[in-house]
Amino acid sequence: MRRVSAAQAASLVRDGDTLLIGGSGGGHAVPDALLAALGQRFRDEASPRGITALHPVGVGDGGHRGMGHLAQKGLLRRNIAGSFVNSPPVGRMALDNEIEAWSLPQGALSQLMREMAAGRMGLFTKTGLHTFVDPRLQGGRQSACAREDLVTLEIVRGEEMLFFKPYHIDIAFLRGTTADEDGNVSMEQEAVTLEMLSEAQATKRCGGIVVVQVKRMAARGTLHPKMVKIPGILVDLVVVEPAQEQTFLVPYSTAYSGELRIPLDDIPVLKQDARKVVARRGALELFPRAICNLGSGIFTGIANVAAEEGCLDAICLTNEQGNVGGAPASGGDAGAAMNPDAQLDQPYQFDFYDGGGLDLAFLSFAEFDAAGNVNVSRFGDKLIGPGGFINISQNAKRVVFGGTLTAGGKPKAVAQVEQITFSGAYARSRGQPVLYVTEAAVFRLGDSGPELVEIAPGLTVEAVAGRMGFRPAVAADLRAMDARLFDPARMGLAAEIAGKAGKPANPRLAAL
């Protein structure tokens, strides 16, 4: 292992290389110094040109950090990612057809890293069927010049499966906290661990170069072996960045790393507005010991609501980046969690999700339509990508989608979504219960589409329908939304959850 500068590491990237980038969202374990150095090299030398950037999770601060450093015409030829929401400049290049762009399910890309590390042919999964990732629709393409079939439809033992092809990796930019003199890397101050090990293994199998950005160096033999996430046998170069931040917003939070737990009173209380109404209504679906996912967006507020109501410990909140327990963070820090009980590598979290481990999934919608389809990946002039949404929404036992009924005066309930990130028909065929929660009304997935089941006090069916792009069916048992949702006082949610039946115990355990 050699220690080099970020500029020296960036000088190794050649024209046409495939660059694998570790990290998540707003700076979580993102090797930003390496990406900045590569961006600067291109500005100085107009080199390298035509590279492919591959990253399972969206990477950036919503501006010019992360993948934003690489948003330069000529530097990027193609980008394959779980999402583009964190890097609007790259998303803009895709929309303008300046690069070949695909957005594929975060979980599929995460698990694919492990398949590539083992030298297997690729990833077979049902995740993505009947969404825009399905090659019968768009195959995950997000720009017109993206022609290659990265996803194919296969029949395996009589069942439809999607096959995600592997990639040849030339160089990987990864990140940890500490490296010793032999290149062993630990991640004790990181908010997430992701698939750093699998990415390093996959790169080495391809004969590629593994570069790891860290905050500090340690003497040989001083890292506890159980702390090492990337063994030195996989690391070629280490770049030390003493100013490395935990996220783009937080220099270091002990609550994110698991070093210390913070009091629940330190978790912010949401202001009373439409977004809190939606989060509160979602929280009414909770029950004792429910294992839940909170996607990014409006439903991250459920963690704040549960903390405010004193019932966070009655349930288990998780996020796809690998945190189990605690309170998932919101906003630019989404992906981290305060007070997690465990932090898993991301591929294993998605194994659990894909296997049906989630009792409830709380996911935001950008728009939903008359067929019950949901879109979060592309709308108007915004390229977002699915992130972990497809894995989570297709495989959870029950899904609750949340959002405001309108945005900027325009309906978010539309006749037909622009891109299908969740298929209502596919959910219906599998008997998956689905709710659509807004501040004005609640809908459930019925026989033909969303059916109005709850309405805010003081509103009429006509008033709700007038703010939609289609007329919904109305349930015979239509009722008013709970008045507590609109009152700033606490709802008494802890007692309500405690009074519900919890998950049934395994019959074998009941005999003890």
Automatic annotation (TrEMBL):
Write the Enzyme Commission number(s) for this entry: 2.8.3.8
**SMART domains annotated for this entry?**
CoA_trans
| Domain of life of the native organism | Bacteria
Any matching Pfam family: CoA_trans
Q: What class of enzyme is it?
A: transferase
| Gene Ontology MF: a single term | acetate CoA-transferase activity
Do you know which InterPro entries this protein is assigned to?
3-oxoacid_CoA-transferase, CoA_trans_fam_I, NagB/RpiA_transferase-like
Q: Which GO terms describe its biological process?
A: ketone body catabolic process
| Record keyword Transferase present | yes
As its record notes, the protein acts as a catalyst of: an acyl-CoA + acetate = a carboxylate + acetyl-CoA
Query: Tell me, what does this protein do in biology?
Result: CoA transferase having broad substrate specificity for short-chain acyl-CoA thioesters with the activity decreasing when the length of the carboxylic acid chain exceeds four carbons.
Which family is annotated?
Belongs to the 3-oxoacid CoA-transferase family.
User: Matching PANTHER family, A to Z?
Assistant: ACETATE COA-TRANSFERASE YDIF
What's the name of the protein? Acetate CoA-transferase YdiF
What is the species of this protein?
Falsiroseomonas stagni DSM 19981
